[in-house]
Structure formats: structure tokens, C-alpha cells
Specification:
By secondary structure, this protein is mainly α. It has helices at 3-22, 32-38, 56-66, 68-71, 107-117, 128-141; strands spanning 53-54, 151-152. Helix 3 (56-66) packs across helix 6 (128-141) and helix 5 (107-117) crosses helix 6.
């Protein structure tokens, strides 16, 4: 390596740790309010579920209006993922149909996903009661709850999903 190149490399390397410690100078720390607005994750036990409620009947109309375009009538799929059916198809080496009813272990996860990601292109536009209603509708379509069920922060964590025991619980350090 020529002497001038070696000297230039040494100067650059000597200044990298100092520059890295300072950071790129971009952005600012998020305020507690900004963090709270995005910290909406709902764990399996339902901690943090918001007020509101919904029924399968209420969810049916919302699903037809806001979800069926992607998930098909009654969640049957086409053009995108099916949300209904497949219960009992996961046994064996090649699971056949992964849907809300056959695969998802917790109903609270369904609520969480719908609230943060649906409808496509308009995420986070459903009210909490609308999310409860769509969740209730999908649970009823999968035969998990009845027609008269009311889904809310108290009842949703109690829903026993068919594949609840199909996952290994997370343990820190494991």
C-alpha cells in the first residue's frame, strides 16, 4: 500500500469511533405520546384490549363492505388468503390450510392484526368496535363462537382457538 493511502486510511479509521459515538444527527427521540400511539400490541392474555364490542352480525356487514374484496365472500379467499375453513388440516408433515380457524392460536392475535393492518391500503381506519365486530364475524364463520356472541375486552381472551396448543409458548432465554 502506498504511504499516502496508508496514512489516509489510518486517519479515517481513527475518526470512525468518534463519529459513530455522535450518531448520524438524524431525527429526535420519540415523545411518550408518540410511543403510546404506536404501542398497540395485544398479547395472548388480552392485556391492553381497548373498550368497545362487536357481534358476528355487525361484523358481517363490515366484512362485506371492507374485507370481501380481498378475502372473498364469507372469507373463502380469492383473490387473497382464505380466512375460513381448514380446521383439522394441520396434522402431518404438510399442513394443508392455514386459516384463522385452523392455524391462529389466539383470538387476541386476530384482533391485533386486523386493528393494525386491515383493511389493505387503509390500515388503522376501523374503530375498535368495528375491529371487535369483524373479529367476531370471522370467529363465527370458523365455528369458534356462536351467532349471539358479543366480543369485547373481557370475552375475547377467553375464546379457545382450535390450534391453541399447536405452538410452543415463548420463554425468554430459551
Amino acid at each position: 500500500m502506498p504511504k499516502r493511502l496508508a496514512l489516509a486510511a489510518a486517519v479515517v479509521l481513527a475518526t470512525v469511533p468518534a463519529a459513530a459515538a455522535e450518531g448520524p444527527g438524524l431525527g429526535r427521540p420519540a415523545t411518550p405520546g408518540e410511543v403510546a400511539a404506536w404501542d398497540i400490541s395485544i398479547p395472548p392474555d388480552g392485556t391492553g384490549l381497548p373498550p368497545g364490542s362487536g357481534t358476528p352480525h355487525q361484523g358481517e356487514a363490515l366484512f362485506a363492505e371492507r374485507c370481501a374484496g380481498c378475502h372473498g365472500e364469507k372469507g373463502a379467499g380469492k383473490p387473497n388468503d382464505a380466512l375460513v375453513g381448514g380446521i383439522g388440516t394441520l396434522a402431518g408433515d404438510k399442513p394443508a390450510v392455514k386459516t384463522v380457524g385452523s392455524f391462529w392460536p389466539y383470538a387476541t392475535t386476530l384482533f391485533d392484526y386486523i386493528r393494525r393492518a386491515m383493511p389493505l391500503g387503509a390500515a388503522k381506519t376501523l374503530s375498535d368496535s368495528e375491529v371487535y365486530a369483524v373479529t367476531a364475524y370471522l370467529l363465527r364463520l370458523n365455528g369458534i363462537i356462536g351467532d349471539a356472541a358479543v366480543v369485547d375486552a373481557k370475552t375475547l381472551p377467553q375464546v379457545q382457538m382450535p390450534n391453541r396448543t399447536g405452538f410452543i409458548p415463548f420463554s425468554p432465554g430459551r
